[in-house]
Amino acid sequence: MEANMSLSLNSFTQLENFGHSLRAPSYLFRPARAEEIYEVFCLAEKTGLTVTARGAGRSYNDAALNGGGIVLDLSAMNQILEWDPASGLVRCEPGATLEQLWQRVEPDGWWPPVVSGTMKTTLGGCLGANIHGKNNFKRGTIGEHVLEFSALLPNGESVTCTPEKNADLFYAMISGLGMLGIFTSVTMQMKRIESGLLEVHAWPAHDLHEHLSLLLDNAPGYDYIVGWMDTMNGGKSLGRGQIHAANYVHANEDPNPQKTMQLSNQVLPPRIFGVFPKSILYLFMKPFANNLGWWAVNIAKYAASLRRHTFRQPHAAFHFLLDYVPNWELSYGRGGLIQYQSFLPRETAEQAWREMLSMSLKRGLPSYLGVTKRHRPDKFLLSHAVDGFSLALDFKVTDGRRAKLSQMLQEFDRIVLQAGGRFYFAKNSETSAESTRAFLGEETISKFKQLKKRCDPNHVLESDLFRRIFE
Amino acid sequence: MSNYPKPVTATPLHPRRRGIVIGASDGIGAALARRLAREGYTLALLARRKDKLESVCDEINRAAGEGLAHAYIHDVAEYEKVPELLRRIVADLGGLDLVVFVAGVNYPPGGIEKYNFENDRTMIEVNLIGAMAWLTPVAEMFQSARAGQIVGVGSVAGDRGRVGNPGYNTSKAGLATYLEALRNRLTRRGVNVLTVKPGFVETAMIKAAQGPTPFMIPTEKAVDDIWKAMRKRRQMIYTPGIWRWIMLAIQHTPSFIFRRLSF
User: Fold for domain B17-258?
Assistant: First the structure.
């Protein structure tokens, strides 16, 4: 096909990562049909530029950035093509968001089997990063619920992959960071729910050991489990926090499941205390986005979490914590934030995190927010998961902190790698090619590169992330 | 693709500003390039003369770190090559935050009764149209990205048409007006346009000056002034600053006096 589109300087757009800590300008294309994606591939080859797929731009790092190159914004290809409320099978375009998806399937008594902490992400992005939710230990990553996908490869081929057909591509494109081809449609199996509510149990963890033990021991008995960790207080109480574990409410436990499954029951409240609009809340968080402010917030949160209690919560409210305060990430100020998430085997996690958290407190570079989860390994090629736990840490970036943070995260990488841990390409922004080689292994990388050669012989698909981790 | 240098990857903790310096083989351009590299910029350096440009480039890479400066041999009068080269450079750098246009030639006619159209034309083609050829697509990019900084190096010589070098005066006056117009278009889009008007600076070009060269400053001083103005996102500076007052007086000198003067 002859490329009949051109690179217009008007399409040059400054794009950011979700944490607003990176900026990269690119020529932005917003295709509405798969044919246009192919035209962009042709244009890229003609002009010697590279192409990166971008969904909602919710990655904390450079996964959807391609400075000086072409970015394919797939948000216009967002149709839910087929939905069968009888079988729970749904077929979507890659730009459809989890928000669209759950709002479509929930009133019929279904829920996406795996969701991220925000509902703004697109399915294409979720598959590219092979996201997990608070039920990773039980239901695996999102890729495990994909029955089939179609993709367009830069070599011009259209492929359909299932766990049986083109299995190598199936397991590599999911988790493949959009570097092998562009998803054009995805078929997934939804999870049946009997009520719009989850029954949530909350209880405190007094230190790191108890925190991880609670996750480990309770996970088998629940559908979801997640921990909040107070990362601002050390000493004996290092790693203290709160565990939330939730179960699906069954039909016989919900007096009116028809009502709880209505969308009106699932919407996050737009105002805090009924009066305060959430849309400007982040402005009021700004003065607290420093060591002292977050120290106080963490203490207050821990104090509030000491009470064990049980409550019922709509699915959306339980899962999409990141959407509670719109633009919360802007409260971190000009330098933005970065996230450092490490996945550690259950045997080594406690020791490694003790070392890392103590280091961050000692150096005056504490993480403001810590989130823990329980995980299990999966079969996807660039997998991040382990049989163990993950800890996600948020760090504020300022000019004065960059050098110190960079040095500390390098030491974190060393600790994590020594403990047999892994990293997640949707989150970490500083993982080097060296660290990537160390945890993925040469064999996995060469397998990925062989597939890349086959699907994308002219190296059309490249992102800033790809160049960072595979150079 | 594979035969081009890979862009330097930027991360939140290792941010990279990326700049193009057009006219970087010597003088203010080379000195500014060295300074920008020290301040953390990844640079594309452009000039006609391969040997000189590559030696500046190598020097920067030795001092500030490998892969920080890339050399591109280019004659700014080859206007039609600009769009493709700009696109290539932006991809190589992985983005673009700054464009400095310093390229310029100065061919004095050699006396107040001498004229040389060929030289005048070359000065206009390099100093003015060369700048427009580059800054037009750059302005369009920055306008669209709603970010960026443009620095154009003019001259005090552009503030008044004088007897010594009409062609050079015209090229620099045109450049100043063009930059002003860009500024008026782009400021509202978050883009800073800085016009630099140096007086006498110790560079190779100073040899073109006839007669006395008052308030001469070393290149380093000029670069220091430019860097400070860039950081403050100023609109226009004279370097050294004294020229602001001198040119204020000269600009307001009535014509019946000015046309009788011999400078």
Answer: Rossmann fold (3.40.50)
The crossing angle, in degrees rounded to 10, of helices A349-362 and A402-418 is: 160
Between CA A78 and CA A333 the distance in angstroms is 31
Distance from A377 to chain B by nearest Cα, in Å? 28
| Mutation target vs A (from B2, B8, B9, B89; most A CBs, 10 A cutoff) | B9
Quote the pLDDT of residue B7.
Answer: 57
pLDDT, tens digit, for every residue of A319-336?
Answer: 998 888 888 888 888 889
Q: At residue A251, what is the residue type?
A: A
Considering only CB atoms, which residues of chain A are within 8 Å of chain B? 7, 9-14, 17, 19, 21-25, 47-50, 61-62, 67-69, 335-336, 338, 397, 402-403, 405-406, 409, 429-430, 458-459, 464, 467-468, 471
Instruction: Count the neighbouring beta carbons within 10 Å of the beta carbon of residue B147.
Output: 18
Domain A76-192 belongs in CATH node 3.30.465.10: yes
pTM here is 0.92
Q: Where are the domains of chain A?
A: 9-75+450-470, 76-192, 197-435
- C-alpha B8: how far from chain center: 24
CB atoms under 10 Å from CB of A78, counted, come to 19
Q: Decide if A196 contacts A182 (C-beta within 8 A).
A: no
* Burial class for A164, CB neighbours closer than 10 Å (0-12, 13-18, 19+): exposed
Test mutation, A9, A50, A395, chain B, max B CBs within 10 A: A9
Q: Is A88 helix (H, G, I), strand (E, B) or coil?
A: coil
Element (H, E) at B35: helix B27-38
Task: Please name the CATH architecture into which domain A197-435 falls.
Answer: 3-Layer(aba) Sandwich (3.40)
Question: Which CATH number does the domain A9-75+450-470 belong to among 3.30.70.20, 3.30.43.10, 3.10.350.10, 3.30.390.50?
Answer: 3.30.43.10
- Reported ipTM: 0.89
Please state, in angstroms and rounded to a whole number, the distance separating the CA atoms of residues B174 and B154. Answer: 9
Could you tell me if B92 lies within 8 Å of chain A, comparing CB atoms? yes
Structure confidence by residue, pLDDT tens digits, A230-280 = 999 999 999 999 999 999 999 899 888 888 888 888 877 666 655 677 778
